[in-house]
Amino acid sequence: MCEDLNLPDALKAAGFEQQDIPGLPEGVTAFVGAGVPPEPKPADPWEGFEVISTYTRKQAIEDGVLVDLSSEKADGETKLLVLEAGFKLPIAITATAFADSVLAGTTETPDGEFVFPSGQSCKGRLWDVLMVLRYSIRAANRKGDTDRVHFKVDVDAKGDGHHQTVNLWCQCGPGDNGEPVLTIMLEGED
To answer: What are the pLDDT digits (tens) for 98-121?
Structure first.
C-alpha cells in the first residue's frame, strides 16, 4: 500500500463510518456505510416530446416501398426461394433496389406481367441477389460481427451479354416489434 495514503480519512470523507465489530482480529478496523452514492440515472431524452409520425416496416410493405420476400403475405414461390437460399430472418428489398437488380431491362404487359430478356426470369435474378448476399454475409462474419454488408450484383438488363453492376447493401436491424429483420437497399438508400 502507499505510505502517504490515509485510508481511514479517505473512507470517512466518502461517507463511511468507523464501527467496532465484535470478533474482528486486533488491529483490523471496520468501516460501514453507503460510500459513494450511485450516480443518478439520465433523464429520458424523449420525455415531454410528442411523437408526430411513425412509418413502420409493415406500412412500407403495404405502400410498396419495400418488397416483402419472406412473410406469409409474400408470393409462395418467392418465399420458398428465400428459404432455399438459406435465409431464416424476415427479408425485404426496397422497390428501387428490386427494380434495378431484379426487374432491370424488363417490360410490363398491360396485365401487370414482366417480360424478361431471353433466358432470364424474376426467379433467376432474385436467386442471384440472394446468393451474392448470402456469401457476402458469410465473408463479413469471418471478419467480425457486423449489422450490414455491401455487395454487388451484375445484371444483363438487355440480354446481350453486357452486364451492369448494381451496388447494394443489406442491413440487419429491428423490425416493427424489435425482432431482427434484413433489408436490402441500393447504395445510398437508408
So the answer is: 999 998 888 888 988 888 888 888
Question: Could you tell me the three cell numbers for 154?
Answer: 451484375
Q: Which residue has the cell 427479408?
A: 91
CA distances 5 to 1, 8, 9, 10, 35, Å, are 8, 9, 9, 8, 18
pTM value surpassing 0.85 = no
Q: Which of 67, 70, 71 lies closest to 85, judged by CA?
A: 70
Question: What is the full DSSP assignment across 11-69?
Answer: HHHTT-EEE--TTPPTT--EEES--SPPPPPPPPTTTTPPP-----HHHHHHHTSEEES
* CB distance 33 to 12 below 8 Å: no
C-alpha cell at 75: 408470393
Q: What is the CA radius of gyration of the chain?
A: 30
Contact 110, 149 (CB under 8 A): no
List, for residues 69-85, the tens digit of each pLDDT value.
987 777 778 889 999 99
How many helices (H) and strands (E) in the chain? 5, 9
**Interval 149-167: pLDDT, tens:** 999 999 988 878 888 999 9
